[in-house]
Design goal:
A hairpin with a 5-residue loop joins β8 and β9 (about 225-230). The chain is of the alpha/beta class. It folds into two domains: about 5-70 and about 165-235, Ribulose 1,5 Bisphosphate Carboxylase/Oxygenase; about 80-165, Ribosomal protein L1/L10, domain II (Rossmann fold, 3-Layer(aba) Sandwich). It has eight helices and nine strands.
Length: about 240
């Protein structure tokens, strides 16, 4: 059974219909501005983006994963857990990490304490983290060198995460879903964040992929209709 759309969604869809029917792609500025104008939610939503990529997710050498510091962050508090020992653990605490530890942090996670959105680890703690891989993995929290979350530069990694660094990874359909920032940021800041994300995704293009990498990009707020934006506005 098709999901019934709310009256609010229908109103927003109607307000954006001219962008969806008269043009195949619209400028990033126009798309974001129109979505902000049409939004009628009673709470502050996040602008989201979907990048549809020219990859075959079934092939290991075509999977895409990475991270991107956002110029204006995400507009929300990010709690960070760091698996580290000794001087690196102290470095993480001074940088503002919310949870720091090694064996004790593993025990905390096993007890169900998952009040964090980013996990960072020093290389020597990766074997330790394997004990909670089945818990962190499905939640997209496993640290990785590709996203800069397995590192000896703990201070910088924590500061970037707290400032609003986003991680991205393609799904089984070959698309990347990523938050861009609060709608209240306004067009200029959201556009800057979106361009930063697009550039990071483009740089993550696998060597095995030939031709155009980003097939299409859609933006929407978290509970609204989407608008297809012009790729040329995002990636030179």
């Amino acid at each position: 059974m098709a999901k019934r759309r709310s009256k609010r969604f229908q109103r927003e869809l109607q307000a954006l219909e001219h962008l969806k029917s008269s043009k195949r792609e619209v400028s990033v500025t126009e798309a974001i501005s129109s979505i902000i104008s049409a939004c009628s939610l009673k709470f502050e939503p996040t602008l989201d983006a979907v990048f549809n990529l020219n990859i075959d997710p079934k092939k290991g050498d075509q999977n895409v994963r990475g991270a991107c510091p956002l110029p204006y962050g995400l507009g929300k508090e990010i709690k960070v857990a760091v698996f580290a020992r000794g001087s690196k653990a102290e470095e993480a605490r001074k940088a503002g990490a919310d949870y720091v530890g090694a064996e004790d942090l593993v025990a905390s996670v096993l007890d169900g304490n998952l009040d964090f959105q980013t996990v960072i680890a020093t290389p020597d703690c990766m074997a330790l983290i394997a004990k909670v891989g089945k818990i962190l993995g499905p939640r997209g929290l496993m640290p990785s060198p590709k996203t800069g979350t397995v590192t000896l530069d703990v201070e910088n990694a924590v500061r970037e995460a707290k400032a609003g660094k986003v991680e991205f990874k393609n799904d089984k359909g070959g698309s990347v879903h990523v938050p861009v920032g609060k709608v209240s940021f306004g067009v200029e800041k959201l556009e800057a964040n979106l361009k930063a994300i697009a550039s990071a995704i483009q740089r993550a293009k696998p060597a095995a992929v030939k031709g155009n990498f980003i097939k299409s990009v859609f933006v929407s707020h978290s509970q609204g209709p989407s608008v297809r934006v012009r790729i040329a506005d995002l990636v030179a």
